[in-house]
Amino acid sequence: xxxxxxxxxxxxxxxxxxxxxxxxxxxxxxxxxxxxxxxxxxxxxxxxxxxxxxxxxxxxxxxxxxxxxxxxxxxxxxxxxxxxxxxxxxxxxxxxxxxxxxxxxxxxxxxxxxxxxxxxxxxxxxxxxxxxxxxxxxxxxxxxxxxxxxxxxxxxxxxxxxxxxxxxxxxxxxxxxxxxxxxxxxxxxxxxxxxxxxxxxxxxxxxxxxxxxxxxxxxxxxxxxxxxxxxxxx
Amino acid sequence: xxxxxxxxxxxxxxxxxxxxxxxxxxxxxxxxxxxxxxxxxxxxxxxxxxxxxxxxxxxxxxxxxxxxxxxxxxxxxxxxxxxxxxxxxxxxxxxxxxxxxxxxxxxxxxxxxxxxxxxxxxxxxx
Lengths: 234, 126
Fold this sequence. Notes:
- The complex is a heterodimer.
- Chain A is α/β, with parallel strands linked by helices.
- Chain A has helices at about 15-25, 45-50, 60-75, 95-105, 125-145, 160-165, 175-185, 210-234, and strands at about 5-10, 30-35, 55, 80-85, 110-115, 155-160, 190-195.
- Chain A has one domain (about 5-234): Alpha-Beta Complex (Spore Coat Polysaccharide Biosynthesis Protein SpsA, Chain A).
- Chain A has eight helices and seven strands, in the order βαβαβαβαβαβααβα.
- Helices cover about 85% and strands about 0% of the residues of chain B.
- Chain B has helices at about 5-25, 30-50, 50-60, 65-115.
- The relative contact order of chain B is 0.06.
Protein backbone atom coordinates (compact mmCIF):
# COMPACT_ATOMS: atom_id res chain seq x y z
CA UNK A 1 0.00 0.00 0.00
CA UNK A 2 1.07 3.54 -0.71
CA UNK A 3 1.93 5.35 2.49
CA UNK A 4 2.42 9.09 2.89
CA UNK A 5 3.94 10.66 5.98
CA UNK A 6 2.52 14.10 6.64
CA UNK A 7 5.06 16.16 8.55
CA UNK A 8 3.73 19.53 9.72
CA UNK A 9 6.53 21.97 10.48
CA UNK A 10 6.37 25.44 11.93
CA UNK A 11 9.71 27.05 12.79
CA UNK A 12 11.53 23.74 12.82
CA UNK A 13 14.72 24.72 10.98
CA UNK A 14 16.81 23.21 13.79
CA UNK A 15 15.05 19.86 13.75
CA UNK A 16 13.61 19.15 10.34
CA UNK A 17 16.76 17.85 8.59
CA UNK A 18 17.48 15.37 11.39
CA UNK A 19 13.82 14.26 11.44
CA UNK A 20 13.75 13.54 7.70
CA UNK A 21 17.11 11.76 7.71
CA UNK A 22 16.00 9.61 10.59
CA UNK A 23 12.79 8.87 8.74
CA UNK A 24 14.67 7.93 5.58
CA UNK A 25 16.88 5.55 7.54
CA UNK A 26 14.07 3.92 9.54
CA UNK A 27 11.29 3.78 6.97
CA UNK A 28 12.74 4.13 3.46
CA UNK A 29 9.69 2.47 1.89
CA UNK A 30 7.24 5.27 2.73
CA UNK A 31 6.82 8.64 1.01
CA UNK A 32 6.68 11.80 3.00
CA UNK A 33 5.86 15.45 2.57
CA UNK A 34 6.85 18.31 4.85
CA UNK A 35 4.10 20.94 5.20
CA UNK A 36 5.82 24.18 6.08
CA UNK A 37 3.18 26.39 7.69
CA UNK A 38 4.77 29.66 6.62
CA UNK A 39 7.58 29.40 9.17
CA UNK A 40 9.34 32.58 10.17
CA UNK A 41 12.71 30.84 10.37
CA UNK A 42 14.63 29.05 7.62
CA UNK A 43 12.59 25.82 7.66
CA UNK A 44 11.71 26.15 3.96
CA UNK A 45 15.29 26.97 3.00
CA UNK A 46 16.66 23.97 4.91
CA UNK A 47 14.14 21.70 3.18
CA UNK A 48 14.99 23.05 -0.28
CA UNK A 49 18.74 22.78 0.30
CA UNK A 50 18.32 19.13 1.21
CA UNK A 51 15.87 18.46 -1.62
CA UNK A 52 13.13 17.32 0.76
CA UNK A 53 9.55 16.96 -0.48
CA UNK A 54 7.99 20.20 0.61
CA UNK A 55 4.62 21.91 0.47
CA UNK A 56 5.09 25.49 1.56
CA UNK A 57 1.98 27.39 2.62
CA UNK A 58 2.10 31.05 1.59
CA UNK A 59 0.30 32.17 4.76
CA UNK A 60 0.19 30.66 8.22
CA UNK A 61 -2.86 28.42 8.69
CA UNK A 62 -2.11 26.84 12.04
CA UNK A 63 -1.51 23.17 12.77
CA UNK A 64 -4.97 22.01 11.65
CA UNK A 65 -4.78 23.73 8.28
CA UNK A 66 -1.25 22.46 7.77
CA UNK A 67 -2.09 18.85 8.50
CA UNK A 68 -5.20 19.07 6.34
CA UNK A 69 -3.05 20.23 3.43
CA UNK A 70 -1.18 16.94 3.83
CA UNK A 71 -4.45 15.01 3.73
CA UNK A 72 -5.55 16.86 0.60
CA UNK A 73 -2.25 15.96 -1.02
CA UNK A 74 -2.59 12.33 0.05
CA UNK A 75 -6.12 12.26 -1.37
CA UNK A 76 -5.06 13.71 -4.72
CA UNK A 77 -2.04 11.47 -5.10
CA UNK A 78 -4.01 8.34 -4.29
CA UNK A 79 -2.31 7.26 -1.07
CA UNK A 80 -3.90 4.40 0.85
CA UNK A 81 -2.52 5.36 4.24
CA UNK A 82 -1.53 8.71 5.69
CA UNK A 83 0.64 9.01 8.78
CA UNK A 84 0.91 12.22 10.78
CA UNK A 85 4.37 12.69 12.20
CA UNK A 86 5.67 15.78 13.98
CA UNK A 87 8.55 17.72 12.48
CA UNK A 88 10.06 18.60 15.85
CA UNK A 89 11.83 15.34 16.62
CA UNK A 90 9.41 14.13 19.31
CA UNK A 91 8.37 11.12 17.31
CA UNK A 92 10.42 8.04 16.58
CA UNK A 93 10.22 6.72 13.02
CA UNK A 94 10.91 3.21 14.30
CA UNK A 95 7.22 2.96 15.25
CA UNK A 96 5.85 3.76 11.82
CA UNK A 97 5.48 0.12 10.88
CA UNK A 98 3.53 -0.50 14.12
CA UNK A 99 1.16 2.32 13.21
CA UNK A 100 0.63 1.10 9.68
CA UNK A 101 0.29 -2.62 10.40
CA UNK A 102 -3.28 -2.58 11.85
CA UNK A 103 -4.48 -0.57 8.86
CA UNK A 104 -2.81 -2.82 6.33
CA UNK A 105 -4.38 -5.86 7.94
CA UNK A 106 -7.76 -4.12 8.01
CA UNK A 107 -8.03 -4.22 11.81
CA UNK A 108 -8.41 -0.48 12.26
CA UNK A 109 -9.22 2.72 10.37
CA UNK A 110 -7.35 5.06 12.69
CA UNK A 111 -4.26 4.14 14.68
CA UNK A 112 -2.94 6.42 17.42
CA UNK A 113 0.64 6.20 18.62
CA UNK A 114 0.16 6.27 22.38
CA UNK A 115 2.58 7.02 25.21
CA UNK A 116 0.20 5.63 27.79
CA UNK A 117 -0.31 2.05 26.67
CA UNK A 118 2.98 0.88 28.10
CA UNK A 119 3.91 4.11 29.90
CA UNK A 120 7.44 4.10 28.57
CA UNK A 121 9.59 6.93 27.27
CA UNK A 122 8.81 10.62 27.69
CA UNK A 123 5.55 10.91 29.59
CA UNK A 124 5.02 14.68 29.76
CA UNK A 125 4.49 16.61 33.01
CA UNK A 126 1.99 15.50 35.67
CA UNK A 127 -0.24 18.50 34.97
CA UNK A 128 -0.34 17.75 31.29
CA UNK A 129 -1.01 14.06 31.90
CA UNK A 130 -3.93 15.09 34.07
CA UNK A 131 -5.23 17.30 31.28
CA UNK A 132 -4.88 14.50 28.75
CA UNK A 133 -6.73 12.11 31.08
CA UNK A 134 -9.53 14.64 31.44
CA UNK A 135 -9.89 15.05 27.66
CA UNK A 136 -9.73 11.29 27.26
CA UNK A 137 -12.62 10.96 29.72
CA UNK A 138 -14.58 13.65 27.96
CA UNK A 139 -14.18 11.94 24.60
CA UNK A 140 -15.25 8.63 26.13
CA UNK A 141 -18.31 10.39 27.49
CA UNK A 142 -19.15 12.01 24.16
CA UNK A 143 -18.72 9.04 21.84
CA UNK A 144 -18.08 5.97 23.97
CA UNK A 145 -14.59 5.34 22.63
CA UNK A 146 -11.65 5.21 25.01
CA UNK A 147 -8.42 6.65 23.65
CA UNK A 148 -5.72 7.25 26.24
CA UNK A 149 -3.30 9.53 24.43
CA UNK A 150 -5.76 11.92 22.82
CA UNK A 151 -3.20 14.64 22.14
CA UNK A 152 -0.72 12.40 20.38
CA UNK A 153 0.20 13.88 17.01
CA UNK A 154 1.47 10.54 15.77
CA UNK A 155 -1.28 8.70 14.01
CA UNK A 156 -2.11 6.74 10.89
CA UNK A 157 -5.38 6.66 8.99
CA UNK A 158 -6.75 4.68 6.05
CA UNK A 159 -8.07 5.91 2.73
CA UNK A 160 -11.59 6.45 4.01
CA UNK A 161 -10.39 8.75 6.76
CA UNK A 162 -8.01 10.56 4.40
CA UNK A 163 -11.10 11.47 2.37
CA UNK A 164 -12.97 12.67 5.46
CA UNK A 165 -10.07 14.66 6.88
CA UNK A 166 -9.34 16.29 3.53
CA UNK A 167 -12.89 17.63 3.64
CA UNK A 168 -13.15 18.53 7.27
CA UNK A 169 -10.38 18.86 9.85
CA UNK A 170 -10.40 20.70 13.16
CA UNK A 171 -8.28 23.83 13.17
CA UNK A 172 -6.81 25.13 16.41
CA UNK A 173 -6.00 22.09 18.53
CA UNK A 174 -7.06 19.35 16.18
CA UNK A 175 -5.74 16.16 17.79
CA UNK A 176 -8.54 15.41 20.29
CA UNK A 177 -11.24 16.69 17.96
CA UNK A 178 -10.04 14.51 15.11
CA UNK A 179 -10.41 11.46 17.37
CA UNK A 180 -13.98 12.43 18.25
CA UNK A 181 -14.71 13.08 14.58
CA UNK A 182 -13.33 9.65 13.62
CA UNK A 183 -15.33 7.92 16.35
CA UNK A 184 -18.55 9.63 15.32
CA UNK A 185 -17.86 8.60 11.73
CA UNK A 186 -17.79 5.01 13.03
CA UNK A 187 -14.08 4.58 12.36
CA UNK A 188 -12.38 1.79 14.27
CA UNK A 189 -9.77 3.46 16.43
CA UNK A 190 -6.82 1.61 17.89
CA UNK A 191 -3.92 2.67 20.07
CA UNK A 192 -0.48 1.18 19.69
CA UNK A 193 2.33 1.76 22.19
CA UNK A 194 5.05 4.17 21.16
CA UNK A 195 7.75 6.04 23.00
CA UNK A 196 8.22 9.73 22.44
CA UNK A 197 11.14 12.01 23.17
CA UNK A 198 11.20 15.48 24.55
CA UNK A 199 11.54 18.14 21.91
CA UNK A 200 15.08 18.36 20.67
CA UNK A 201 15.22 22.08 19.93
CA UNK A 202 13.01 25.12 19.61
CA UNK A 203 9.97 25.57 21.83
CA UNK A 204 6.65 23.80 21.89
CA UNK A 205 3.73 25.63 20.39
CA UNK A 206 1.73 25.03 23.59
CA UNK A 207 3.31 26.53 26.70
CA UNK A 208 2.16 25.81 30.23
CA UNK A 209 0.62 29.22 30.79
CA UNK A 210 -1.81 28.63 27.96
CA UNK A 211 -2.68 25.15 29.10
CA UNK A 212 -5.72 26.08 31.16
CA UNK A 213 -7.13 28.09 28.29
CA UNK A 214 -6.35 25.19 26.01
CA UNK A 215 -8.31 22.80 28.21
CA UNK A 216 -11.38 25.00 28.35
CA UNK A 217 -11.31 25.73 24.65
CA UNK A 218 -10.78 22.13 23.60
CA UNK A 219 -13.52 20.90 25.96
CA UNK A 220 -16.02 23.34 24.55
CA UNK A 221 -14.91 22.60 21.00
CA UNK A 222 -15.40 18.87 21.61
CA UNK A 223 -18.89 19.37 22.97
CA UNK A 224 -19.87 21.65 20.10
CA UNK A 225 -18.42 19.18 17.64
CA UNK A 226 -20.40 16.37 19.25
CA UNK A 227 -23.64 18.27 18.90
CA UNK A 228 -23.04 19.53 15.38
CA UNK A 229 -21.84 16.17 14.07
CA UNK A 230 -24.81 14.26 15.38
CA UNK A 231 -26.72 14.72 12.17
CA UNK A 232 -23.89 13.66 9.88
CA UNK A 233 -22.48 10.65 11.63
CA UNK A 234 -25.31 9.53 13.88
CA UNK B 1 -38.68 64.79 25.63
CA UNK B 2 -37.29 68.28 25.37
CA UNK B 3 -37.46 70.22 22.15
CA UNK B 4 -33.64 70.55 22.12
CA UNK B 5 -33.06 66.83 22.49
CA UNK B 6 -35.38 66.05 19.60
CA UNK B 7 -33.59 68.43 17.30
CA UNK B 8 -30.26 66.86 18.22
CA UNK B 9 -31.62 63.36 17.67
CA UNK B 10 -33.10 64.22 14.27
CA UNK B 11 -29.96 66.00 13.13
CA UNK B 12 -27.72 63.20 14.31
CA UNK B 13 -29.74 60.45 12.68
CA UNK B 14 -30.04 62.30 9.38
CA UNK B 15 -26.32 63.02 9.36
CA UNK B 16 -25.57 59.41 10.21
CA UNK B 17 -27.72 58.30 7.31
CA UNK B 18 -25.92 60.58 4.88
CA UNK B 19 -22.56 59.58 6.23
CA UNK B 20 -23.42 55.89 5.78
CA UNK B 21 -24.67 56.55 2.25
CA UNK B 22 -21.48 58.37 1.33
CA UNK B 23 -19.25 55.70 2.82
CA UNK B 24 -21.14 52.99 1.00
CA UNK B 25 -20.75 54.78 -2.31
CA UNK B 26 -17.09 55.54 -1.80
CA UNK B 27 -15.92 52.21 -0.43
CA UNK B 28 -17.87 50.19 -2.98
CA UNK B 29 -19.68 48.08 -0.43
CA UNK B 30 -21.78 45.48 -2.14
CA UNK B 31 -25.45 46.42 -2.28
CA UNK B 32 -26.56 43.37 -0.29
CA UNK B 33 -24.26 44.42 2.53
CA UNK B 34 -25.37 48.03 2.52
CA UNK B 35 -29.10 47.32 2.71
CA UNK B 36 -28.92 46.56 6.43
CA UNK B 37 -27.18 49.85 7.25
CA UNK B 38 -29.54 51.91 5.11
CA UNK B 39 -32.58 50.41 6.81
CA UNK B 40 -30.94 50.81 10.19
CA UNK B 41 -30.22 54.50 9.70
CA UNK B 42 -33.71 55.05 8.28
CA UNK B 43 -35.06 53.47 11.42
CA UNK B 44 -33.06 55.89 13.53
CA UNK B 45 -34.50 58.84 11.60
CA UNK B 46 -38.02 57.51 12.03
CA UNK B 47 -37.52 57.07 15.75
CA UNK B 48 -36.16 60.58 16.18
CA UNK B 49 -38.99 62.13 14.14
CA UNK B 50 -41.75 60.12 15.80
CA UNK B 51 -40.68 59.17 19.30
CA UNK B 52 -44.31 58.18 19.91
CA UNK B 53 -43.40 55.03 17.97
CA UNK B 54 -41.09 53.96 20.78
CA UNK B 55 -43.66 54.78 23.46
CA UNK B 56 -46.33 52.90 21.59
CA UNK B 57 -44.17 49.80 21.10
CA UNK B 58 -42.93 49.92 24.69
CA UNK B 59 -46.50 50.06 25.90
CA UNK B 60 -47.48 47.24 23.65
CA UNK B 61 -44.97 44.74 25.03
CA UNK B 62 -45.02 46.09 28.58
CA UNK B 63 -41.66 47.87 28.84
CA UNK B 64 -42.04 50.71 31.34
CA UNK B 65 -39.70 53.21 29.75
CA UNK B 66 -39.61 53.87 25.97
CA UNK B 67 -35.86 54.52 26.24
CA UNK B 68 -35.33 51.01 27.50
CA UNK B 69 -37.32 49.69 24.58
CA UNK B 70 -35.10 51.59 22.15
CA UNK B 71 -31.92 50.27 23.79
CA UNK B 72 -33.27 46.75 23.92
CA UNK B 73 -34.30 46.59 20.30
CA UNK B 74 -31.19 48.29 18.92
CA UNK B 75 -28.84 46.11 20.96
CA UNK B 76 -30.75 43.05 19.81
CA UNK B 77 -30.57 44.02 16.14
CA UNK B 78 -26.86 44.81 16.42
CA UNK B 79 -26.23 41.55 18.19
CA UNK B 80 -27.84 39.60 15.36
CA UNK B 81 -25.83 41.59 12.85
CA UNK B 82 -22.61 40.89 14.73
CA UNK B 83 -23.39 37.21 14.82
CA UNK B 84 -24.03 37.12 11.08
CA UNK B 85 -20.77 38.96 10.53
CA UNK B 86 -18.96 36.44 12.66
CA UNK B 87 -20.37 33.64 10.51
CA UNK B 88 -19.26 35.49 7.42
CA UNK B 89 -15.66 35.96 8.59
CA UNK B 90 -15.61 32.31 9.52
CA UNK B 91 -16.72 31.32 6.04
CA UNK B 92 -14.20 33.63 4.47
CA UNK B 93 -11.43 32.17 6.58
CA UNK B 94 -12.51 28.76 5.40
CA UNK B 95 -12.48 29.82 1.76
CA UNK B 96 -9.10 31.47 2.13
CA UNK B 97 -7.74 28.35 3.76
CA UNK B 98 -8.94 26.09 0.94
CA UNK B 99 -7.45 28.45 -1.56
CA UNK B 100 -4.10 28.58 0.20
CA UNK B 101 -3.96 24.80 0.54
CA UNK B 102 -4.76 24.23 -3.10
CA UNK B 103 -2.31 26.87 -4.19
CA UNK B 104 0.48 25.32 -2.13
CA UNK B 105 -0.21 21.86 -3.53
CA UNK B 106 -0.21 23.21 -7.11
CA UNK B 107 3.10 24.92 -6.40
CA UNK B 108 4.58 21.64 -5.26
CA UNK B 109 3.32 19.90 -8.39
CA UNK B 110 4.85 22.59 -10.55
CA UNK B 111 8.17 22.20 -8.79
CA UNK B 112 8.11 18.41 -9.12
CA UNK B 113 7.35 18.73 -12.80
CA UNK B 114 10.21 21.17 -13.21
CA UNK B 115 12.58 18.83 -11.38
CA UNK B 116 11.58 15.97 -13.67
CA UNK B 117 12.11 18.07 -16.80
CA UNK B 118 15.55 19.20 -15.76
CA UNK B 119 16.40 15.66 -14.74
CA UNK B 120 17.11 16.77 -11.23
CA UNK B 121 16.07 13.41 -9.90
CA UNK B 122 12.68 11.95 -10.49
CA UNK B 123 13.44 9.54 -7.70
CA UNK B 124 13.07 10.11 -4.04
CA UNK B 125 15.30 12.97 -2.94
CA UNK B 126 15.86 12.18 0.70
